[in-house]
Amino acid sequence: LFNIPNAIIKPTALVLNIFIASFTSWRFIKKGFFDLKVLLPIAIGAIPFAFLGGFINAPSHIYKSIVGLILLLSAISLMTNLSSRIDKDLKKPPFFLAMIIGSLIGFLAGLTGTGGGIFLSPLLLFLGWGSTKTTSGITALFILINSSFGLLGNYSSVQNLPTQLPLFIGATLIGALIGTTLGIKFYTANTIKKVLALVLVIAGFKLLLT
Q1: Alpha-carbon distance 44 to 79, whole Å?
Q2: Dist. CA 17–CA 76, nearest whole Å
Q3: Average pLDDT over residues 98-123
Q4: Number of domains in the chain
Q5: Selection from 117, 114, 116, 112 nearest residue 58 by Cα
Q6: What tens digit of pLDDT does each residue of 164-188 get?
Q7: Is residue 1 part of a domain?
Q8: Is residue 121 a part of any domain in this protein?
């Protein structure tokens, strides 16, 4: 979002998240790659803490360093476990534990102004709570929920959204169409994990270096 004032970057990103996540979750759910029993406790824990995180203005250099390191460690974990039990020995999450994890992710999402999916995806895979493609569907709907509530918290900024927003939405939906088609029809579980690891590395270094 170059040349966009800092004050409206967050609500603009949240609006784009809502459009992308709506389309992505619809495609994955339609193909059966979704598990409500996994998402529900995580979402219940995340929603109130996403609001709380959004209200806290912590020094950015502190949380950026912490989150950046977490993302890089997650990427390393994914790359070193490509042939592990992931997608094989899957289990249902304990409800209370999933709520606690959702609370932590929701807080980080609110603090950083993201949908939280970049934290949730590697964690679901690491804990064995979902197959690779099911994790994609769960994460997409989680981002939709988190971003929607986050936008409600930034409602006063919505009237100042950039005039280029329709172009941004169109471009991101094209990207979502390509990405979901590759993820659903062509990519293997290991390929998806490699792509996710690359995204985590890019996001991690971006947070550490900016």
Answers
A1: 30
A2: 26
A3: 86
A4: 1
A5: 112
A6: 889 999 999 998 998 899 888 877 7
A7: no
A8: yes
Which is nearest to 157 in space by CA: 58, 12, 32, 3?
12
pLDDT digits (tens, 9 = 90+) for 67-85: 788 888 888 877 776 655 5
DSSP state of 185: I
pTM: 0.82
* Confidence band of 29 (pLDDT split at 50, 70, 90): very high
> Is 88 part of any domain?
yes
| 105 inside domain | yes
Picking from 190, 201, 198, the residue whose alpha carbon sits closest to that of residue 86 is: 190
Geometric angle at alpha carbon 18, from 12 and 24, rounded to 5°? 135
Nearest to 200 by CA among 98, 114, 142, 131: 114
18: nearest Cα among 154, 124, 122:
154
182 vs 186: CA distance, rounded Å: 5
The domain containing residue 36 runs over which residues?
6-209
